[in-house]
Design brief:
This protein has a domain of 38 residues. Helix content is 0%, strand content 34%.
């Protein structure tokens, strides 16, 4: 990478497919008070907001494992 930014790998569950997805988050935030970072999901091709503190997806049910349309 051209910049000297430090990255850390995280693993999160896609709320739509239930698949585990690995991505990288920057060690340092770009904005003051930024808690969530948007990431591209390889499982569903969508964008999710990931909590930088605990790695959980914003708005995902805590006990959901698979997306099932009603």
């Amino acid at each position: 990478m051209a910049d000297h930014q430090r990255w850390r790998p995280i693993l999160f569950n896609c709320p739509w497919t239930g698949d585990k997805v690995q991505t990288l988050l920057a060690e340092e935030t770009t904005g003051v008070g930024t808690r969530y970072e948007s990431v591209s999901c390889l499982a569903c091709s969508g964008i999710h907001l990931i909590d930088r503190m605990d790695g959980k997806v914003l708005g995902a049910a805590p006990d959901s494992t698979r997306y099932s349309p009603r």
